[in-house]
């Protein structure tokens, strides 16, 4: 094992409160009813565009485009007001790095927002690469972002693992042939993660997995 790839939202960072505020700002501006935190949780995972589409059922294409602009503008301006690292993230990342693993991020959040939030939270120095929703033509659950990193780092699929909280991470990893680790503490349901090679209930459990010892 040489390369460890992390999802961001729901895996490394708990951003649900900021995403809820952003979603409700957009919904209010669009004249729609706001949603609760747990309702927004079910919308997260496939990027901002898909979240907006699911939050505005029946909206016309021009309405969705306007709403997406509102969402992205507000999200960037308030991206780390309530967002925090999950407990033990910094220590676990340091441990993995010190053991010689190379670390990267693949997220369905746009790359500039990924870089902004991990810099603001002080963990950008751990990650050698960040692949966002707009970095490659396809995003998770497509394996393309994973394959891109395998190529860039010069590692075989069997030498890499992807860690995430949703079916998008598991599906992308399986299609690329890498080891998959499901995070049950994140935003996805347990049923989405049941085919992962490993499951963890907290971030500090990750360095203790057999593949990382």
Which terms would index this structure?
9 helices, 213 residues, single chain, Rossmann fold, 2 domains, 14% strand, alpha/beta, globular, 6-stranded parallel β-sheet
Q: Could you explain the architecture of this structure?
A:
By secondary structure, the chain is an alpha/beta fold. It folds into 2 domains: 3-14 and 83-212, HAD superfamily/HAD-like (Rossmann fold), CATH 3.40.50; 16-77, Orthogonal Bundle (DNA polymerase, domain 1), CATH 1.10.150. Helix content is 41%, strand content 14%. It has 9 helices and 8 strands. It has helices at 16-29, 37-41, 48-55, 61-77, 89-98, 111-120, 144-153, 167-176, 190-193; strands spanning 3-6, 13-14, 84-85, 102-106, 129-131, 160-164, 179-183, 198-200. It has a 6-stranded parallel β-sheet, with helices on both faces. Strand 7, helix 9 and strand 8 (198-200) form a beta-alpha-beta unit. Helix 1 crosses helix 4 (61-77) and helix 3 packs across helix 4 (61-77). The mean pLDDT is 96.
Produce a short descriptive summary.
With 213 residues, this protein is an alpha/beta fold. Helices cover 41% and strands 14% of the residues. The mean pLDDT is 96.
């Amino acid at each position: 094992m040489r390369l460890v790839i992390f999802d961001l939202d729901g895996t490394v960072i708990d951003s649900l409160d900021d995403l809820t505020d952003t979603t409700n700002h957009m919904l209010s501006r669009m004249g729609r009813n706001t949603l609760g935190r747990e309702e927004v949780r079910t919308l997260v995972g496939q990027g901002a565009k898909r979240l907006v589409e699911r939050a505005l059922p029946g909206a016309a294409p021009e309405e969705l485009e306007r709403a997406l602009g509102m969402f992205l503008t507000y999200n960037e301006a308030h991206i780390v007001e309530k967002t925090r690292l999950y407990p033990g993230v910094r220590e676990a990342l340091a441990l993995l790095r010190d053991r010689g693993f190379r670390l990267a991020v693949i997220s369905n959040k746009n790359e500039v927002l990924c870089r902004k939030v991990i810099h603001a939270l002080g963990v950008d120095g751990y990650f050698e690469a960040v692949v966002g929703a707009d970095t490659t033509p396809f995003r998770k659950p497509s394996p393309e972002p994973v394959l891109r990193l395998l190529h860039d780092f010069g590692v075989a699929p069997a030498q890499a693992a992807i860690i995430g909280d949703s079916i998008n991470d598991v599906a992308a990893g399986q299609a690329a042939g890498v080891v998959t680790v499901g995070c049950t503490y994140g935003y996805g349901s347990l049923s989405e993660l049941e085919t992962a090679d490993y499951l963890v209930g907290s971030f500090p459990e990750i360095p203790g997995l057999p593949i990382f010892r």
